[in-house]
Amino acid sequence: MKRFSTILALIVSAALLTACGRLGSSGVGTTSSTKTTSTIQTTGQTSDDEYQGVIQNGKYKTSKARGLTKDQNTNGSNLKSFENGLQTISQKQFATDDYIFQEGQYLKKATAQNWLDRKSKSNASGLNPVDNGETDATKRNPDYIQAIEEQDYMTQDGNNLKLGGMTIGLAMNQVDYYQKEDYGATYETKISHDKMVSEGKSMANTVVSRMRKTEGVGNVPIVIALYEQATNDSLVGGTFFAYGISKDGGKTISEWHNVNEANYVLPVVGSAKSGSTSDADSFSNFKTNVQSFFPNLSGVTAQTHYKDGNLSGMNITINTQFYSETEIKSFTQYLVTAANKYLPSEAAIEITVQSTDGTQAFIAREAGEKSFYSHVFGSY
């Protein structure tokens, strides 16, 4: 929900890798050997509560197995929520001032795929249970884990970087979608929350034990974060519900911490929950006011995120049919006024105005701030 990082992603994402910021301020330099010379740099930071990333030989160092997931879940919001929330969990153990973020390098794609598949004679490392041959929703063994993600946290070692810690996210299913035959109808096996938690914690210990045997990991702290996938028909992604820490080279999780998070969609439809009646009312007043001022709107919706029962962020999307630059500018100015008047005052707020031509305007306010930042996207 960071204002500046969102603006950069929308306007100058290509320039991030060459941004000044704190580029090279960590003292990271050149690593030499008899055959190659590897230059390590960092991306710099747009704010103190975000990690610097690793650039090697002038290129961002990408993940070995990024975005790998079983193909049964079609909710695109899950992956975004999973990856963004994973860094938030990491900050509880790895401070942004002390560690540099690196995309996962130790869990290879083929290994991760084997872990996500079912255990079988040909795949002894599968984390999901053996297929028992049943097709009835209540009798079959469901897939419990849907995705796995590794994030590495580096520390400075002279002019080089070394692994200082690692976070691995396990995305768990609350519903397992399956087919009884290829290209057939899709069925569902519902998984209780208690079963999801127990399976996740058991898998966490297995993953820690395996990572300890991986070359280069050593005795660094390993954080395992457990994420509950949202269902396919959800308009928001899932949430993390627990994380555990393995310290001092331990092969199991030595301590577990609960995470109390929830996501909702506004306006509320049918019997769905809103998270907070007052927050829902605030959004409703904002929506009504905006639509009465500019009637050519296709829709105004919001995603809300709660931590420990309190609203921490609200992402509002406004779909419009405007094409006039002057209309967009006037509309953006009015949105700032309406947001200040109607929306909750403490939470981080993002408002995106978009049409079939793309994003037209962006408005944001960070948590605890009083004023909004706005930008209208133009062209030459």
Automatic annotation (TrEMBL):
InterPro entries named in the record: CamS
Coiled coil: none
CDD domains in alphabetical order: CamS_repeat_1, CamS_repeat_2
Signal peptide from the UniProt entry: 1-24
Gene3D superfamilies associated with the record: sex pheromone staph- cam373 precursor domain
Keywords from the named record: Signal
Domain of life: Bacteria
Biased composition (Low complexity): 28-46
Record region (Disordered): 26-53, 120-140
Pfam families hit by this protein: CamS
Protein name: CamS family sex pheromone protein
